[in-house]
Amino acid sequence: MIFKDKMKKFHPGFTLVEILVVLAIIGIIVGIATISVSTIRQKSRDIKRLKEVDSVRTALQMYFYNEGQYPNSITFGSTLTGSSSSSTYMALLPTNPSPRNDGICPDNDYAYYTTATSTNYKLDFCLSTPVGNVSSGQKCATPQGILNQSCFVCGESLTYSGESYPTVLINDQCWTAKNLNIGTKINSGNSEPTCHDVSGGSGQWSCQIDPNVIEKYCYNDDASSECATYGGLYEWAEAMGFPYECNNADFSSGSSNCGTGTTYTVATEHQGLCPTGWHIANNTDTAALYSYLGGTGIAGGKMKETGTTHWSFPNTGADNSSGFNGLPSGYRNYNGVYFSLQYNGIFLLSTVTDSGLDLVFTGTTANEYGMYRVAGRSIRCVKD
């Protein structure tokens, strides 16, 4: 009986401590396995990137041999067809596999640049890990091979949509030193059906209303003279790549569906109409710019083109010591009327939806100037 009682008191099984130890070991194993799988996937994306870039290089060489030049621009995710023929050189140009910001790489798609004569090109991409004898980091594919560096060096000219843009390094920011000038010219106005009142009767007229076309205003509707010299003037929604309804929507939270059923979000570095790897200047960019140039009171003088070829007299304090080369492109007002050519340079900011950077002919200030989003303003791009 004594023996039986002792047996009843014995309970085989694991203690709480033993169970916790086992669970901890399982967690470590799962964590290691997860890291390993993630690393393997990242490596496979880098291998895919290198193969895709090589295939694009091959297609571009075939294009050059048959067309006599490289394409002025290419769109990743689209078909590469000839400029003077109907030949298809690549059925689908690849896009950078997601997530694009693997490891040390930025969240950018592949970026293609060509020379003004289209006799050479550069293709910018990034590897997060070494692949074969190609190290990690920013790389540049050219007709001659792959260079162990980024394609773009600030200070070089950037070719975008067939037009050349000089660039300038101001402190640690790389800016385009010329106003953006892409898209199809449309005429300003304040009447239906060409333009729409987007404000429900208060007279804010948007004429940039075709979602399938990049549309720009030219001062006095003159493309050959004014847009060629001063660049295009763009509504905020058009610049951002949003429908025109977003010109009067509430973006206080950073996002809005603009009454369309689709949500649109203002990114911290919003590409919009700028080239891949660049973004529309935002208020953080301009704040850093003003600070570096000595404050808003004198920054304007350092940003303005000198002389009175384009600026009206007296163009006070202009020395363009920053290299920004600001021009007095004026603006298209909310009611469809153009104002202030040769007197003000007003630049659209992505994250300050109802204002812009204003340079004036009578002083050295750089102001944040309040404007309706339907107003047409100049655009400068900043490297990501």
Q: Work out the strand percent.
A: 15-25%
Characterize the main sheet: 4 strands, antiparallel
Radius of gyration: 28 Å
Report the total helices: 6
Strand order of the largest sheet: 3-4-5-6
Q: What would you call the structural class?
A: alpha+beta
Q: What string gives the helices and strands in order?
A: HHEEEEEEEEEEEEEEHHEEEHHEEEEEE
Distance from first to last alpha carbon: 84 Å
**The number of domains:** 2
The coarse overall form would be globular
Mean pLDDT: 90
State the total count of DSSP E strands. Answer: 23
- Percentage of residues in helical conformation: 10-25%
Descriptive keywords:
384 residues, alpha+beta, four-stranded antiparallel beta sheet, three-stranded antiparallel beta sheet, 6 helices, 20% strand
Describe the structure concisely.
This protein has helices spanning 2-9, 16-67, 223-230, 236-240, 283-292, 296-303; strands at residues 80-81, 88-90, 111-114, 121-127, 137-142, 145-147, 158-160, 163-165, 167-170, 173-176, 184-185, 196-197, 205-206, 215-216, 255-256, 264-265, 278-280, 331-332, 338-339, 344-348, 355-360, 366-370, 381-383. With 384 residues, the chain is of the alpha+beta class.
